[in-house]
Predict the 3D structure of the following.
Amino acid sequence: MPEKLPEAALKALKIAFTYMPKAIEVTKYEYGDRTQTVLDHIEAVREILFMNDVDPEEVYGEINPDSTPNSSY
């Protein structure tokens, strides 16, 4: 099993991830020939987050709790 990231590195990765585009936003129109590369980068970051027991879907709310809408559940 891969080693977990140190807490400071994991927090930095979470912050960077909040600024990355969502995969659904990555289009050929916006990114041209780099589309697949950008999608691969997003997936690589998501995998590292998962390996560190972090749900990528929850990262934005953790990093920016003041600007995250309340859950509708």
User: Anything to note?
Assistant: DSSP finds four helices and no strands in the chain. The chain has a mean pLDDT of 91. The radius of gyration is 14 Å.
